[in-house]
Amino acid sequence: MRIVKEAEERRNEILDAADILFGKKGFDATSTNDILEKVGIARGTLYYHFKSKEDILDALIKRYQEQIINAARAIAADKSISVPVRIIKVIRAMNVSQGGAKELKEQMHKPQNALMHQKTQTVVLEGVTPILTEIIRDGIEEGLFATPYPRECMEMLLLYGGTVFDDTADTSQDVREQRIRAFIFHTERLLGAESGSLTPYMLQMFGLR
User: Which residue range is the domain that position 143 belongs to?
Assistant: First the structure.
């Protein structure tokens, strides 16, 4: 048991170091030597835990995914919170810019880190879509929504929202606000919600009133 614990601690040390380095230098510009120096270990120790730098990236993204999914599940399970508020809270939990992940998120949006961005989006969407789908089903039972395709609606909305409202989107504030209002309009119709029922919640999510 002691050996397992030590191995797990070492693995997390490597991930913590990679997290910081990827955030500061970017994935492509960070070498395995950089990670070795920061952790203070031999190359053999690194390769005992991870096969390559890409393997470290995958493990780091998985760790973020687990943090996001755990937070999202806790929110979804709290039936004392209304359906619209639960949806908004889960979407906010997907934001990896909180805490120590802020620099990493900024790096992910740079062209040289396209692989990081793509992998992170994929694993988060795969994990969060089923959680949001269950909340939508709760909304259907409560009569708030009326759609025979709750999962597909969530997939479309998350994929579109993640692309159009990307932090690096080069658009004016007027264009962005117009797209947000259009997004809310079509979200309500996709879910079969009453017109305007989600508007105040989603405007707040986007920082509008």
Answer: 62-205
